[in-house]
Amino acid sequence: MCIDQGEAPAFFLDDLDREFSNGFALKGSQTTTVIGDKTYVIGGTDDESASTIGVQIFNRSTSEVTIPTVLGTKPKQCKDHAALLLNEDRILIVKGDSTPEDCAWLLEVDTKFVKQQQNNFETEVVAWSKGVRGDAEKPIVISGPSGVGKGTLIAKLMKEFPFMFGFSVSHTTRSPREKEKDGVHYHFTDRSVMENEIKDGKFLEFASVHGNLYGTSVEAVEVVADAGKRCILDIDVQGARSVSESSLEAIFIFICPPSFEVLEKRLRDRGTETEEQIQKRLRNARAELQQGQSSGLFEHILVNDDLETCYESLKKVLGLDGIAGTTPKPKFENANPVPKFVDLPVDRSVSKIDKKICINCRSAELENASEQLFVLDLSSLKGGAPGRTRGLNMYAIDPFANGIKYEI
Ligand SMILES: Nc1ncnc2c1ncn2[C@@H]1O[C@H](COP(=O)(O)OP(=O)(O)OP(=O)(O)O)[C@@H](O)[C@H]1O
Ligand SMILES: Nc1nc2c(ncn2[C@@H]2O[C@H](COP(=O)(O)O)[C@@H](O)[C@H]2O)c(=O)[nH]1
């Protein structure tokens, strides 16, 4: 067997007590998890039409129930789930009747990220992130004044290494330029829509740049990582600072022009801005150059004088000098049968052995097998909300093939 032997499984059955002192009663599939004075009630909502799993907090010292601000992508409702407290700061939710890709979710309740957001929102905050397998390489943040050549360098990188890099498509309230496509260069949006989405916690970072709103959604970064690629963000210095303070670990690169005059010429020659906008961008460039070079935020500062020389320096920083970029990464092929569904036992109990969560799934997958053991290995979890918690390992153990592990 690949789970540790000799340790008695600890069974978790959360909601033994289904009524609270203030008369608040749990509904069918809701579970409770206690942390200090707070009981997190997970599942269902007051609005039964809601399609995602709801969260309420019962404060035992005040007997009040609050609905927190919920950040991150929320998991879809399911008929059943199990809840397990991890490290006093996040709760693992195992969805019953789900696919392996959608079975593990983490609700951060007291992590560094949640504490920061509580200060911003001045409310109770919790944040969902989806547990996913494998690691993602650190995203690359590229900043520099408007017209310095960030977009040109990124386009070269993506062209040479199409299988390696993916671009984080930002949201912006500025109007599209002639050749720009919605959803490719930017998600073009209205200010009021974007402001509401910012309030809803959709953005990893956002800033007002040259009079318009720009922002990186959590989803923009995560879809690139989900596709197995390394994410590139083209954002201004304010945005880079916000990313450095977020839970996203990234590499920060600042691009400088050889001189202010050259920067001005490139902006003018590009021909995409009015004179008024050019003046505004140049005024902002002075401040950005000063901050970029002196803030200590950027680990790498490159001068874009000759394009090819700067591109080679960028490749070197990324460890790509001498690497051919056209070969796709081999896909992981799994020869073993894998279960299509994770189904919780009737009593919703799952057992935790060290950092492994074991679930006796009812399975229609394996003929003659009434159940099979499904293991969620949390020993290499990385990152956290917003978005995805990576490094989850999942495998099934065939009850008939002693010791054979099926990677999912
Ligand atoms: N090394 C270079 N030498 C000469 N021209 C360059 C060089 N790098 C970029 N350019 C040109 O400068 C202009 C501005 O480049 P680009 O649009 O990539 O800048 P940017 O930093 O992405 O600007 P913004 O922040 O406004 O999006 C473009 O016309 C591009 O072709
Ligand atoms: N903070 C953020 N800055 C962003 C984002 N997307 C782009 N940008 C920066 O805005 C300026 C202007 O871009 P332009 O396309 O109008 O020329 C440039 O410096 C970009 O780096 C973002 O999501 N967040």
How would you describe this structure to a colleague?
It is a single chain. With 408 residues, the protein is α/β, with parallel strands linked by helices. It folds into 2 domains: 10-128 and 339-407, Lipocalin (Beta Barrel); 135-317, P-loop containing nucleotide triphosphate hydrolases (Rossmann fold, 3-Layer(aba) Sandwich), CATH 3.40.50.300. It contains 8 helices and 25 strands. The strands form 4 sheets. Strands 1, 6, 7, 8, 9, 10, 20, 21, 22, 23, 24 and 25 form a 12-stranded mixed beta sheet that branches. Strand 4 (55-59) and strand 5 form a beta hairpin. The radius of gyration is 25 Å and the shape is globular. The ligand Nc1nc2c(ncn2[C@@H]2O[C@H](COP(=O)(O)O)[C@@H](O)[C@H]2O)c(=O)[nH]1 is lined by residues 146, 150, 170, 174, 205, 207, 209-210, 214-216, 234-236, 238-239. It catalyses: GMP + ATP = GDP + ADP. InterPro entries: Gal_Oxase/kelch_b-propeller, GK/Ca_channel_bsu, Guanylate_kin-like_dom, Guanylate_kinase, Guanylate_kinase_CS, Kelch-typ_b-propeller, P-loop_NTPase. Its EC number is 2.7.4.8. GO terms for molecular function: ATP binding; GMP kinase activity.
Count of all domains: 2
Distance between the termini: 16 Å
Number of helices: 8
CATH topology of the largest domain: Lipocalin
Overall spatial form: globular
Low-confidence stretches: 1-16, 332-337
Q: How many strands, what sense, and barrel or not for the largest sheet?
A: 12 strands, mixed
Rg, Cα atoms, Å: 25 Å
Record keyword descriptors for this entry:
408 residues; alpha/beta; Lipocalin; Rossmann fold; 2 domains; twelve-stranded mixed sheet; 8 helices; disordered N terminus; binds adenosine-5'-triphosphate; binds the ligand Nc1nc2c(ncn2[C@@H]2O[C@H](COP(=O)(O)O)[C@@H](O)[C@H]2O)c(=O)[nH]1; EC 2.7.4.8; ATP binding
